[in-house]
Write a structure and sequence with these properties.
The complex is a heterodimer of chains A (about 300) and B (about 260). By secondary structure, chain A is an all-alpha fold. Helices cover about 75% and strands about 0% of the residues of chain A. Chain A is flat. The chains are: A mainly alpha (about 300), B mainly alpha (about 260).
């Protein structure tokens, strides 16, 4: 229980640092937010009134305090362009991003579990080599090229799937594949490496000497012990999925928080930029911590040794 | 495989140099030639403004190389310096730098680069700054951890017993030993920087038109996927080839230099 509390305190400290970094980043922004709301030709009296309304006249430290007070109440400010609460804008779009990230995570699991086991089982034989080459290619292919390639092949060439947007459940397939493939490559490599390390352990030789077949060796002895590092990587990836979704969403015009972010950057709508960056960063931190806790559950050795010291 | 990778990287370097010294017209607009397919006159066809894709590809090679080298140089310098400081001095500098590292690691790298680029505005120099802000932390963490264990080793104790100063110990006895993992990290860093620059340019946050960037070319080409797929295929293939080659080189270096641990980021 104390470990859980300690992990929680640690996560809070990191979240504090992350939000401060985001605040500082956007407080020093060179452009004047007033220009965004009123246009650059506005009267100076109007500008002054707007500065007052937006709280830009107050000293930085005071704005920082106000930022935290608002943040604790779930208030992310108001969009400069749409004059709506940022939290409402994000709440509208977040389900789309979560759906995409979830589907992509499914792609990651469906590919990396079998591929990693296949490679480890056939160490240094052709299936292993093939998996390694494909993983290297998958790791290196940029989302914003893979996406158009998929569209060319599956939508234009074969006509199987919709090109973009929200045309029913089928439209999630291409974005999820695009987002999931490079991540699947990373976790496949990870699973292969940890399986190989475990398979060189004496207890696996013992298991084989007992007369267990390879299937039982893999599923009962190797895989459970390889899961801890695999889950850690998945935790890192779940957060990275949220961030990677930004580019994938733009490629497929997916109406999630990624397109919201890029649109807001284009309009210099800084409160929205700040809000989306915060939400993604928080999601990243939380999914990492969740993975840490899960790992401690799955692998008692880590639970005993680790004191929740974080990353 | 590694030979192929070296060849691809060599072609990249030559293309980057050629993009600067060869008489090319990456920005010459020629309206009669709009969206021409690859042919003898236009090796890789032309884009929606009739600009030669081949010339733009070479110009883009220069941009990606410049960004990658400067980004990695800047982030490695800052990261190694801070990592050495934290690891060697210890005490409060280590606690402060350690916390800052943790906060930066709590950000998905690309998100931080996007946010930085959004704040700084587009342009070559801002892209490099944004990517270095995202990149330094990997080197710092790596060097800090290495130095923490190395400074307890016998050869460092011996050097101290012989009366060598801190600067000399860091320079002669620690830095050379952390260079191998830093080199491996840097080669993966080159690949990451190439992809990130193209990604930022794809989002319109990187290199601005009319200057050529592979990411920007892909972005512009997506609209003409049906009529002129070469606009997306050519820059994407170049980007993909370079990234695969650099990653292969990184894997090779890691195995060669026997660097075991590497972040999965």
């Amino acid at each position: 229980m104390t470990r859980l509390l300690k992990a929680l305190a640690d996560a809070l400290l990191v979240l504090f640092g992350v939000s401060t970094l985001v605040f500082v980043l956007l407080a020093v922004v060179p452009g004047d937010p007033v220009d965004v709301v009123l246009g650059e030709s506005a009267q100076s009296a109007d500008r002054e009134a707007m500065r007052e309304a937006l709280g830009l006249n107050r000293p930085l430290v005071e704005r920082w305090g106000a930022f935290y007070l608002d943040l604790l109440q779930g208030d992310l400010g108001e969009s400069l362009v749409r004059r709506e609460p940022v939290s409402a804008l994000i709440a509208q779009r977040l389900p789309w991003t979560l759906a995409l990230a979830g589907a992509a995570l499914l792609v990651v699991l469906l590919i990396s579990l079998p591929a990693g086991m296949l490679a480890a089982r056939n160490h240094n034989r052709w299936p292993d080599r093939a998996v390694q080459v494909i993983a290297l290619l998958g790791l290196s292919i940029p989302n914003f090229w893979l996406g158009p390639l998929f569209v060319m092949l599956f939508s234009i060439g074969l006509g199987w799937l919709p090109v973009s947007g929200n045309q029913g459940a089928a439209s999630v397939v291409l974005p999820a594949l695009t987002l999931g493939l490079s991540m699947a490559a990373v976790s496949t490599r990870m699973l292969r490496a940890s399986l190989l390390e475990i398979m060189s352990q004496p207890y696996l030789r013992t298991a084989r000497c007992k007369g267990l077949d390879e299937h039982a060796v893999m599923y009962r002895h190797a895989l459970p012990n390889a899961l801890a590092p695999f889950i850690t990587v998945l935790g890192l990836q779940l957060g990275a999925l949220l961030a990677g979704a930004v580019i994938t969403e733009v490629v497929f015009a997916w109406p999630g928080i990624g397109t919201l972010l890029v649109d807001a950057i284009g309009q210099r709508d800084y409160p929205v930029v700040q809000g989306v960056v915060l939400v993604i960063a928080f999601g990243y931190v939380l999914s990492n911590r969740l993975a840490d806790l899960l790992v401690a559950r799955v692998d008692p050795r880590i639970g005993a040794a680790d004191t929740g010291a974080g990353t | 495989m590694i030979r192929l990778a070296v060849v691809v990287i060599a072609v990249w370097l030559v293309a980057a140099v050629a993009g600067v010294i060869a008489p090319l017209d990456p920005s010459r607009i020629s309206l009669p030639d709009i969206l021409a397919s690859p042919s003898a006159a236009h090796l890789l066809g032309t884009d929606d403004l009739g600009r030669p894709v081949f010339d733009r590809l070479l110009a883009g090679a220069g941009v990606s190389l410049l960004v990658a080298v400067l980004t990695v140089g800047l982030s490695a310098t800052v990261g190694v310096a801070l990592g050495l400081l934290a690891g060697y001095v210890g005490g409060w500098p280590d606690r402060v730098i350690g916390r800052v590292i943790e906060v930066f690691l709590a950000f998905p790298g690309m998100l931080l680069a996007i946010a930085m680029a959004a704040v700084l505005g587009p342009g070559l120099d801002n892209v490099i700054i944004a990517l270095a802000v995202m990149g330094w932390v990997g080197y710092a963490r790596l060097v800090r951890v290495q130095v923490l264990s190395l400074k307890q080793s016998d050869h460092v104790l011996a050097a101290r017993a012989l009366g060598r100063g801190d600067v000399a110990i860091v320079r002669c006895h620690l830095l050379p030993l952390v260079m191998a993992p830093v080199l491996v990290e840097a080669s993966f860093g080159i690949a990451a920087a190439v992809v990130a620059e193209a990604g930022l340019s794809f989002l319109g946050l990187g290199i601005q038109p009319p200057a050529a960037s592979w990411g920007g070319m892909i972005h512009d080409g997506v609209r003409y996927l049906l009529v002129a797929p070469h606009l997306v295929l050519a820059p994407g293939a170049a980007l993909f080839a370079v990234v695969v080659a650099v990653n292969l080189l990184g894997d090779h270096l890691r195995d060669r230099l026997d660097v075991t641990s590497r972040s999965t980021r």
